[in-house]
């Protein structure tokens, strides 16, 4: 599993939604949406963010959808954080472990058991 690749849909959705303010975003973070999960991941990886983190996030926020260089820079910055703190990669991977699938019942990945709702 390449955690950096796995988080990209979540973190880019959060950046697309909140722009450079994503590291300060606190409302709706309890929700289990792609955007909320991405915000939590970015905040866990970058904290409040140094100038470099804000620059990378700003580059992604201002990029056109087909501009892969900004997203590549973001992935690279995430990988640098993972290399600096190996525990961080595991923590972020754990944040991705539970996936809810649209339908009647949530589905868990990684051994978690979620109760069926309404049955």
UniProtKB/TrEMBL annotation:
This is DUF222 domain-containing protein. It comes from Nonomuraea composti.
């Amino acid at each position: 599993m390449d955690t950096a690749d796995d988080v990209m849909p979540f973190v880019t959705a959060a950046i697309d939604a909140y722009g450079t303010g994503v590291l300060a975003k606190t409302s709706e973070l309890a929700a289990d949406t792609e955007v909320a999960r991405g915000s939590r991941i970015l905040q866990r990886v970058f904290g409040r963010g140094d100038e470099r983190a804000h620059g990378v996030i700003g580059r992604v926020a201002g990029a056109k959808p087909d501009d892969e260089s900004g997203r590549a820079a973001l992935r690279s910055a995430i990988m640098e954080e993972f290399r600096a703190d190996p525990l961080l990669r595991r923590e972020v991977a754990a944040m991705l472990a539970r996936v809810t699938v649209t339908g009647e019942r949530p589905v868990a990945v990684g051994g978690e058991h979620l109760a069926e709702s309404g049955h």
